[in-house]
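Q: Sequence in, structure out?
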Amino acid sequence: MSTTVPTPAPTVTTIRPVRPHEFDAVGDLTQRAFAAGPYGHLPVSAERRMLERDTAARLRSGTVLVALDADERVVGSATLLRPGTPEARLARHDEAELRLLAVDPTLQRSGLGEQLVDASLAEARRWGSRAVVLDTGALNVKAQRLYLRAGFARDTDRPVTAYPNIADLPH
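A: Exactly. Output:
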């Protein structure tokens, strides 16, 4: 028999909105996290690379939360978007949209992703959102499990056409 050894929980001192001097660190982290994921072997389009790097644009469409370790390094981030903004693609009238949840690859499976999802849901409640929507690729089983544990359910009535070559699963 064998089992995987869980990654120790990071010493996260703060989850808060991003500050301008952290934009590059968030972009770097997002690219590293997605490159380490189940689609990391695929070519990345210029549009996708810009989405991952342009923290300021995402911030203009909602908020970007960061998780900082004890040394104040960005080790996680999550983007929460308002409906009808340039970076949102799923959110409707009274919903918020969670996108680009990223955790440092060395800290994945530590519970940090759950903390960022919880912080995002709390922020959406402060906005008065009725629901939070997201999508994730069909191969991203770890993320799907995280979102299901957080209370998300698949929404088979909502079409997703963001990446025609990847089967997305709306939640």
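The mean pLDDT is 87.
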